[in-house]
Write a structure and sequence with these properties.
Blueprint lengths: L1 H20 L2 H9 L7 E7 L2 E2 L8 E6 L2 E5 L4 E8 L5 E8 L7 H13 L2 E5 L2 E5 L4 E7 L1 H11 L1
Antiparallel strand pairs: 1-2, 1-3, 1-9, 3-4, 4-5, 5-6, 7-8, 8-9
């Protein structure tokens, strides 16, 4: 009887893991979601505040699993990174051009967010970056990337 009770939590845990692996939302992400690598991600929220970014001034693109680049409001930037399938992320030192503009303060906050990011999550056409405390930024896949992807499917 005691042996059966010992294995009950383990069995429940395995059942939960199996159920979450076949979750319909994961199928949705695979069918309709934007991939992490190669998608141009546009910033829509930074530190809980909505960002007006229809012109793509704040963007992010993972060139591959080890390199990212984009625009930070004024300047172009690039950095090394490590992405892992479990959503773990580490961003290395950021190199950027040095132009000044009215968005300089927000650009500094954007770069600070990138440096502090330790986790990413994909939710359909959204990318969420978090640090050790919580969500720092939300990005949306750029429309041109979605149109390109749809053309490849058709």
């Amino acid at each position: 009887m005691q042996t059966r009770n010992r294995f009950r939590p383990l069995c429940l845990l395995l059942l939960l893991a199996a159920a979450s692996a076949c979750c319909p939302c994961r199928k949705y992400q695979k069918l309709y979601g934007a991939p992490l690598v190669g998608t141009r991600w546009l910033l829509i929220q930074l530190d809980g505040e909505e960002v007006a970014n229809s012109d793509g001034r704040f963007s992010l693109r993972f060139e591959d699993a080890k390199r990212l680049s984009g625009r930070g409001g004024c300047n172009r930037y690039s950095a090394s990174c490590d992405t892992e399938a479990g959503g773990h992320l580490r961003v290395g030192p950021i190199a950027s051009t040095r132009m000044t503009c009215p968005e300089a303060q927000r650009e500094r906050a954007f770069f600070a967010m990138l440096r502090s990011a330790v986790r990413y999550e994909l939710d359909a056409k959204m990318l969420i970056l978090s640090d050790s405390i919580g969500v720092r930024a939300v990005f949306q896949a750029a429309e041109e990337d979605q149109n390109t992807k749809n053309q490849k499917i058709n």
